Amino acid sequence: MIEIKFYITTPIYYVNDVPHIGHAYTTIAADIIARWNRVKGKEVFFLTGLDEHGEKIAEAALKAGLTPQEFVDSIAPKFIKAWEKLNISNDDFIRTTEERHKKTVIEIIKRIYENGDIYKGEYEGWYCTACESFWTEIQLNNGRCPQCGREVKRLKEESYFFRLSKYQKKLLEFYERNPDFVLPESRKKEMINRIREGLKDISITRKTVKWAIQFPFDKEHSLYVWVDALINYISALDFPGEKFKKFWPPDVELMAKEINWFHSVIWPALLFSAGIELPRKNFVHGWWTVEGKKMSKSLGNVIDPIEMVNKYGSDALRYYLFREVPFGQDGDFSEKSLVNRINTELADSLGNLVNRVLVLVEKNFDGYVPKPKEKDKLTKLSLNVVKAVDESMEEFRFHSALNDIFFLVNESNKYINENKPWEIEDKEKLGGILYNLLETLRFISILIYPFMPETAGKIMKQLGIEKKISFDDLKWGILKSGTKIKRDKILFNKIIL
Ligand code: MSP
């Protein structure tokens, strides 16, 4: 049976800061996957949102002279606006300060507690507020946070613990039975090795943190922000109602490598304890640096996605991010490289192809789609590219998918040069060649849609097609002869830096 539901999530981002290119990257990746699955006929639920509790947010609010709630309310619209600008098609936007979320968190914690997996003890160790993470003495790097390098503080307080250690064997068995649970493979191996080293119970409450959800079994304690945050994936589905029954579990949870541990070890253990099915897949991607350096406010090199969209357009940015770096690997952002790709691949190759073909149809057939003649090597290539792109997309190999699509674009340009339509006098033959080019353009527009939804829509419109984009239409010969094409402005302007 073909599965018809598809649930995809992004991490919920901390609101201590405004959205940057790193947040945009994961969110666009999720959008590409969501759009692809919709095109394939699935009912998609695409969730993103914000992580609004914890010490780090409370500190940022204090600095801004606002209450934590006022502060998070002031930042949330910035994320919403950024995702609108980037054409993100999320179906919901969860904020952990919402009632629906708090209610579900309490329900899940109760289940875990009733299962005997929470006990009272004392935590002694180190805490990094920036990463909202606990560390042991051995894990520290020269006395600093091993993840972000910032100062850590010594904590010694009464705390409730979750019996993570109890799930070591069960987790390893789960990994064994579900070899695709964590991708790429190297990220899975890291997790398996760490689980094998031994799991320690984790502190899940704090006495001193007030900006958090209250621990339901002891009013003096609040819930650790990570436990609160992970549950968003459930609370957005109105657990345990119809939406939950329909969409749970996530088909894929996306994130970058620094939070793999939370999603691939702690989260599954919490779900085991609560008696809830585990997500099907965690896809862990790499980090973007900027001209070789980590993005940071102090270096002043933080890339604002809105500024990039205003300068270059949403589709160009989306294209660049996924063409430049294989999904899963680290990448380095460079505006020069972005502009270079716009000028060569988007303007010279794709934009030019669309314009050339439509001009030829206008000139020779008054702007009406000519009659097909015979299928040829372009037909074969288009159909082969569909197959290859389908395989790549299903495995999140966006980079290969784009490579193949742009191979088709380049081959189509070559096909024009080789066939020299301007020299062909036989109208029927000329019509056949232009028909094949128009069909290829239609294929290209469907295939680029998840990456560049605006451009796909523009090409479709110019081809005189008003139908919703569907994978089922990737069959040769659907474009009707006699359809009036509507040539419009060129798709991409060249940029001079
Ligand atoms: N609030 C937690 C997540 C809780 S999920 C239950 C958090 N928030 S965050 O704001 O720090 O976002 C981290 C995520 O943002 C990364 O895992 C990744 O998805 C994205 N990125 C942030 N910076 C990034 C880069 N420099 N490069 C690539 N992705 C980046 O962690």
Helix content: 40-55%
Contiguous runs where pLDDT drops below 50 for at least 5 residues: none
Strand content range: 5-15%
CATH architecture of the largest domain: 3-Layer(aba) Sandwich
**Individual helix count:** 17
Write the CATH homologous superfamily of the largest domain: HUPs
Characterize the structure shown.
The chain is elongated. The strands form four sheets. It has a six-stranded parallel sheet, sandwiched between helices. Strands 5-4-6-8 form a four-stranded antiparallel sheet. It has a three-stranded mixed sheet with strand order 14-13-15. The mean pLDDT is 97. β1, α1 (21-39) and β2 form a beta-alpha-beta unit. It folds into two domains: 5-286, Rossmann fold; 335-473, Isoleucyl-tRNA Synthetase, Domain 1, CATH 1.10.730. The protein has helices spanning 21-39, 55-64, 68-85, 99-114, 168-177, 185-197, 225-230, 232-235, 242-247, 260-274, 305-312, 314-324, 335-365, 377-394, 398-419, 427-448, 453-462, and strands at residues 5-14, 43-51, 92-95, 118-128, 133-135, 153-162, 182-183, 202-203, 205-206, 222-223, 252-256, 282-285, 288-290, 293-294, 331-333. The protein is an alpha/beta fold and 497 residues long. It starts with a strand and ends in a 35-residue tail after the last helix. The protein binds 5'-O-[(L-methionyl)-sulphamoyl]adenosine. 5'-O-[(L-methionyl)-sulphamoyl]adenosine is lined by residues 11-14, 22-23, 25-26, 51, 229-230, 232, 255-256, 258-259, 287-288, 295.
